[in-house]
Amino acid sequence: MPISHFTQQTRIRRTRMLPQEGEITVRRDQKVGAMDPVGNCYLPGKHELIDLYQALGISQKTPLETITDRNAGETLQKGDILAKTGKMIKKIVRAPADCYIESIEDGKMLLELLEPPFELKAGLDGIVREVNPNWSVVLETFGCLLQGVWGNGRVSSGLLVNTVRPGVEEFARGSVDVTMRGAIVAGSYCCTQQALEAAVDFSLRGLILSSMSSSLVGYALKMDVPLILMEGFGSIPLNPVALNLLTQFDRHNACLNACSWDVYEGSRPEVIIPLPGTGSDPREGGHVHQGSRVRVKVPPYAGAVGVVTQLRDGDTTIHSGLRVKCAEVKFERLPLTSYPVTNLDILE
Amino acid sequence: MAVPFTKVTSLLGVEIGSCNTRAVLFDQAAGQFHYLSAASAPTSIIHPFHNINDALLQALMSLQTASSRSLMDDTSHLILPSLADGSGVDGLVVTHSAGKPLRILTIGLLPDFSAKSARKLALTLPNCQVFGMDPGQTPRRVNQLDAIITSEPDIILFAGGTDHGSVNAIRKLEEVILQACKSFPAERVPVVIFAGNSILADEMEEHFEKVANFFTASNIRPEVEKEDFTSAEEVLSGVVTSIRASQYEGFKNLLKISSTPPIPSSVGFNRVVRYLSLRYPSSKGVLGIDLGAAATTLVSAWQGSSEVTVTPYGLGQGLKTFLEENSAESVSQWLSEQSAMDAAPDYLWQKSLYPQTVPATAETLDIEQAAAREILRSSMKKHVKQACVENACYESILVSGSTLTRTPQPGEALMMILDGIQPVGITSIILDRNGLASLLGAAAVINPLIPVQVIDSSAFTSLATVIAPCAKAKPGTPILRVSIDYGQSSVTRLDVKMGSLVAFPLPPGQTANLMMEPARGVVIDPVRKATGFKVFGGLCGVVIDARGRPLSLPQDGDLRRQTLQHWASILGA
After folding, report:
1. Any idea where the domains of chain B sit in the sequence?
2. Are the C-beta atoms of residues B36 and B66 closer than 8 Å to each other?
3. How far is it, in rounded angstroms, from Cα B435 to Cα A13?
4. Span A47-113: which CATH code?
């Protein structure tokens, strides 16, 4: 099973890939910031078909080469001449927008209109280690890594301000104030839209929440402030490992990549706090075994972190009445509990 | 060396599901195939594994232990064919539903004919997002081009024209598709399948040869009123399988060693339900339900022909789509405890992040079972519309998917089916507890006797015989007088009232004679007119569901909760 990382010091290598073939704008060993573009490409644009003969008002018997010297594959700017005729009284057909000539057949020019290019952001402060021309880069940094479970699709970086305090459970509107403008704020669970609106009002660079009411998904996806949930949906407190790290690195610069979790490709919402020093690569996948540090994924006890003391042989009947493979887990503040293995997340 | 199909005496079935990979062993004893054992492991196609091997190896190791039979050699390779010492198997069949959803673009000439058929065919596959491009709505060539390119398809399924009908309009569409294929980067060019006017097949093959990976299939609309998916289903299924094989390590090897080409799970499930419909020659037909983690498959089959609907709703990855398209309140209405109602939306969203988790408490189990009811309801709504059936009146319902078949109490499974599907008339409900159906469908290619014999060997479990009369009476009005004769002078008589749910115990394997006297205006079964007949037992016995159709829950919250608890108590759920 995949492993969730909450690591103080590790080597972090991430591939950033363009959605279409384009241009990688950084070079190997170049230093980049989280918000820096590392490449760009044109996403598929709308098409226009221009009948050059009709537009020029001339006969289709006119040889094409006498009215245009354009070829398929050329990129043009708005206003560039596509075709022209006449010496005394010129007639000209111009490109209606920045475009790319896909084909010219029977005097018909098929143009793909170019939208502003898509910019691929680094998403972390680090060094470019590999360049796959026109497609992707591999970035590397060393530091603290905290992986979340849900993100609203945005990227940011800024000063980390941790507001999670023992006894203060909910992240409310009052949890942020004007002194946090431009910061990435870490909070516990959020139940109200007003709290998220405060993040927008105070121009936060990002939000790291332990959990959030599922009723806020719609608003969270629309808001411009990057948001990562570390535990998921509901009122799940921040796991103690994450809390320790966020407390330890309070007021450090953090990079927030609030992408959605793609279990197939491996991209995952995460917080990276670049730190000096080195580290080894984190383990990506493994199995639950005796001694594994695990987190409970779903209620009850969602977010609780413990250590597996024993893997039970065969299937065990659990409270719901289902028979599944179980592990005995020793939690810090809970009695020794038998838990379905599939409900446990390996933490490293 | 492959064993001739007629000599296959043991068979391994592998189902690569979106959550779990299952390995199932079938064996022949006394000339009859039967189910022997099964084991599963979490599917390993996700990051960082990207392969099917890890899960398959784990599942096979568990299967070896469970069946006390050696299946792999010292190098962890499957022993195929079996050896003289009894280790290994003679055949291997594979079904799959796992993977990142594939995008299928369907293009047809006329919205009510070829376009509709192409869409219908594409919707029979699990884990696929289906888009349509309607040339009627998008007449300009450049807009058609935009529509194709922006949909970023993995597969274009192109149909149109009856055989030997007009060709000009299809040629125009073909030009646009060709142009679109040229616009994609080389590594993203979609696979194109042409299943239209067969007269154009060769010509198209020539045009697409250097542009895209191109396949032709027989026309899915050879005549205006005739639909034929046989060839196109096979081609589409093969294309989906080859795409999956290129995505995940180990799949290609499985392709090489499997006795028949792997097929999508829904295709195998469809085959088995079609087969069952031949065993029940009633015009009512058979319904098959497979509630999975990523998708729900519904198959209605009548005497060998079928209608298939696959919805992207499931109790794992499919929850996200379900919650985006349906309100969480629709799930909460099936919950009787306030705390569960409050917890349901967050729990289900959380479950969508972790599809492999299981409900650990009674409350979370209730929430998942409530979600299952709503997934079945909304899937059935789409299926009824597609299959053009008036209501869920079937001779038999085959139920697959662990949420429905692995409940702690059998009554819980029956409640989900009654509430979600709302069958009408007299129906027997059968559970596929070991998840065999789709694999048996795949095995039928090796030997059609395998599904026949395995089903006959009681691999499926009878859950209940359900009688759901149609009546428009006030709640509490007697609508049916029932007597059930267990034999040996043991007869139970009862007046069934409108709005009630009644269960008569009758264990699996036992039979009883049922006599019913309906009140005026009450129809016991819209098709089957008999009022007295033999009934077969099941885990829940014989159940009379007189709650009415469509089933409506009380508006008042307290009354609704009491009602739900009362119904559950009757079936021991």
Report:
1. 5-96, 102-247, 266-570
2. no
3. 41
4. 2.40.50
Of B510, B478, B506, the residue nearest B492 (C-alpha): B506
If one counts every other C-beta atom within 10 angstroms of the C-beta of residue A9, the result is 15
Beta-carbon contacts of residue B123 (< 8 Å; ≥ 6 apart): B130, B308, B309, B310, B386
Within this chain, domains A3-40+141-274 and A47-113 share the same CATH topology: no
Measure CA of the first residue to CA of the last residue in chain A; give whole Å: 13
Which residues of chain A neighbour B407 with C-beta distances below 8 Å? 321
Ranges of each domain in chain A: 3-40+141-274, 47-113, 293-347
The CATH number assigned to the domain with range B5-96 reads: 3.30.420.40
Domain B102-247 fold is Rossmann fold (3.40.50)
Residues in chain B: 573
Segments of chain A scoring below 70 in pLDDT: 87, 167-168
Helix (H) or strand (E) holding B226: none
List chain A residues with CB under 8 Å of B18. none
In A, minimum Cα distance to B98 occurs at A264
Cβ partners under 8 Å of residue A61, min gap 6: none
Instruction: Give pTM, 2 decimals.
Output: 0.92
Q: Please give the CATH number for the structural domain made up of B266-570.
A: 3.30.420.40
Beta bridge partners of B485: B491, B513
DSSP for A260-317 reads ---TTT----EEEEE-SS--PPPP-B----TT-EEEE-SSSSTT-EEEEEEEEEEEEE
B35-51 pLDDT, tens digit each: 999 999 999 999 888 99
Q: Which of A21, A234, A318 sits opposite B350 (nearest CB)?
A: A234
Report the alpha-carbon distance of residue B395 to residue A86 in Å, rounded.
Answer: 79
**Closest CB to B347 among A1, A21, A299:** A299
- Residues in a beta bridge with A257: A155, A270
Q: How far apart are CA B258 and CA B236, in angstroms?
A: 19
Residue B461 CB neighbours (<10 A):
18
DSSP state of B407: -
State whether the Cα torsion B134-B137-B141-B145 is positive or negative. Answer: negative
User: What's the rounded Cα separation, in Å, for the pair B174 and B451?
Assistant: 42
Tally the residues of chain A. Answer: 348
Work out the pLDDT band at B5, boundaries 50, 70, 90.
Answer: low
- Nearest-by-Cβ selection for A320 from B179, B345, B365: B365
Q: Tell me which amino acid residue B519 is.
A: A
Contact A299 B406 (CB under 8 A): no
Q: Do domains B102-247 and B266-570 have the same CATH topology?
A: no
State the complex-level ipTM. Answer: 0.91
**Which pLDDT score, from 0 to 100, does residue A200 have?**
96
Q: How far is A298 from chain B (nearest CA, A)?
A: 7
- Please tell me the distance from the alpha carbon of residue A211 to that of residue A189, in angstroms, as a whole number: 5
Distance CA A91, CA A310 (A): 84
Summarised one tens digit per residue, pLDDT across range B441-494 is: 999 998 888 998 998 888 899 999 999 999 999 999 999 999 999 888 788 999
pLDDT number for residue A168: 64
A3-40+141-274 homologous superfamily: Phosphohistidine domain (3.50.30.10)
